Amino acid sequence: MSYSAKDYSRLIGMSGFSETLLKNHFTLYQGYVTNTNKVIDTLSQMLREGKTGTAEFAELKRRLGWEFNGMRLHEYYFENMVGKGEINREGRLIKKLTGDFGSYEAWEKDFRATGTMRGIGWVVLYQDTASNKLINFWINEHDVSHPAGCNPILVMDVFEHAFMIDYGLKRADYIEAFFKNIDWKETEARLK
To answer: How much is the pTM?
Structure first.
């Protein structure tokens, strides 16, 4: 099985994101897809050749989480953008956010604050499938800190490549542009 990079060119022209930034970001994403396939192919070959006890096999197995999650998180990120609209004030998602955070505004304040923390990574609104609770998480690296058994609802990339070309060090301005482009229908559809 081989993964293929998805076409996100529909995002070009999105308010607050230059074509240069988006094209660079798409290229980075395509690299994750390519490397996911390479690592899977190499691991399969090593398995066929009986090389599973090697240090190389172990390191590639560890690397697969980085490449695969880099691919998948970018897909969630790109797919939850270009919404052009406000969150549905009568929808399931806002009711869930209000129930779990006290208000939509309290959730948004927490999500934005998480996004402006020092460091590189991701901010993900996860739904804990065991408790059904929504929780904002900071994900430092692609392959670290993901809460087990949780479903991603909204994903925001806060690695420098997601904003530095357009915003320099002004991450809060990038987050503002991100919020103006959230596809709330997509995020609500992810809610279980």
So the answer is: 0.96
The CATH class, in words, for 18-79 is mainly alpha
The model's confidence at residue 139, banded by pLDDT at 50, 70 and 90, is: very high
| Assigned architecture for domain 92-190 | 3-Layer(bab) Sandwich (3.55)
Q: What is the pLDDT of residue 7?
A: 98
* Edge-to-edge strand ranges of the sheet holding 122-128: 134-139, 122-128, 150-157
Q: What are the structural domain ranges in the chain?
A: 18-79, 92-190
Residues above pLDDT 90, as percent of the chain: 95
Using CA atoms, how far apart are residues 191 and 101, in angstroms rounded to an integer?
16
The total number of residues shown for the chain amounts to 192
